[in-house]
Structure formats: C-alpha cells, structure tokens
Amino acid sequence: MYTLYYSPGTASMAVHLALLESGAPHRLELVDFDQQAQRSPAYLRLNPQGVVPTLLIDGQPYGEVAALLIMLADRHPEARLAPPSGTAWRNEWYQWLAYLSFSLGATYRNWFYPRDLGCAEHPPEVRAALRARIEGVWERIDSQLMARGPYLLGEELSTADLQLLMYMRWSRNMPKTALEWPALKRFATRMRARSSWQQLCDIEGLTEWRA
C-alpha cells in the first residue's frame, strides 16, 4: 500500500495518475496548501523541501516527480508504463522524463513563483523570456508528436505522457496554452478521455481543463 501526499492540481498529479493507471493499492493524504500544511514540522520531516508529491514506499518517503514515476513503473511492470529495460525506447523514456522536469517543471516554478527569483513580480523582460522558454518546449514536443505520436514514445503510453499532461494543464491560464499546438491538442484529447484522468478529476475535485 502506497501513501501519496498530494495537493489538487499540483505536481502530485502525475504520480496520482501513475497510481491509478497501475491499479496499485494506495491511499491519499491531502497536504492543504491554504493552511500551509506543506511547511508543518510533521510534513517537513517527510519532505524537507516542503513540496508535493511525497510518496511512502514501504514506509519510506520519497520525492521528485520524475524519480517517483520511474519507481512506480519499475515496481509495476505489468502496467506497462515504461519500455523494457535495455532498449532504445527505455533510454528515450529517461530522456523525456528529465527534459520535462528541467525544461518545463523548473521554468514553471519560476513563472508561478517570481519570489524565487528575488522579485515580487517579474520584470516584463523576464516574464517574456520564461514564456518563450515554455512555448519553445511546446514547439519541440508538438513536432515530436506530429512525427511519432500519438504518445511521446510512439504507440505506447508511458509515465512521461502523464507528466506531460500535467504540465499541459498548467498552461491553461497562460497567454498561449499548450492546446494551441495541433498535435498537443490531439494528445490532450486522447489523454483526457482515459478513465485515470476522469478518476483523478473526480477525486481531486478538478473541473477546469477536465475535457
């Protein structure tokens, strides 16, 4: 039994989706950001960074989205959430997980939390640079899906697609959303039709960008 510490709509979404896709028994523990629960002494003992997700595996806490997606895929090979070890597809899977984390996850962090950059609000040139970086990622991924879709690795779904879907949702209030790229829009339509996505929206109480 896994325990996922989560907050609705945040970086815990991809891990929540992986648990639902795998069918692995799990329970959820809400980390209430409105109450600053992520900064409580009890939570900081589990996750010293004070972020979500945290996943308890055999009673041991682990963090970092990409790492957790790898762990879950490895622990549940029957769910086929990753290509077989030792294959070129497996290497591409690792590459996409890292690319999404560093090129989207880290940039989004700076977009949503300008205080991390030492300012209350972004100067216009910084905001423009962050937007350009995010949109550049959409360009690259749209080209990948156009050439080799419907998923990032071709015909087979992987946890990288769950991570991508999460980040796409985060663009919903940006000046140009990820859905404005045609292959990404087709990808989102396919992914949001999956029962795991519908379950997650029900459980987390998400209505925006549900379908």
Summarize the structure.
With 211 residues, this protein is of the alpha+beta class.
Please give a structural write-up.
The protein starts with a strand and ends in a 7-residue tail after the last helix. The chain contains 8 helices and 4 strands; from the N terminus they run E-H-E-H-E-E-H-H-H-H-H-H. The chain folds into 2 domains: 2-80 and 199-204, Glutaredoxin (3-Layer(aba) Sandwich); 88-194, Up-down Bundle (Glutathione S-transferase Yfyf (Class Pi), Chain A, domain 2). It is of the alpha+beta class and 211 residues long. Helices cover 52% and strands 9% of the residues.
CATH architecture group name of the largest domain: Up-down Bundle
Shape, per Cα inertia axes: globular
- Give me the count of strands: 4
Bin the strand percentage. Answer: 5-15%
Q: Terminal Cα separation, in Å?
A: 30 Å
Spans with pLDDT under 50 lasting ≥5 residues? none
Tally of helical runs:
8
Spatial ordering of strands, largest sheet: 2-1-3-4
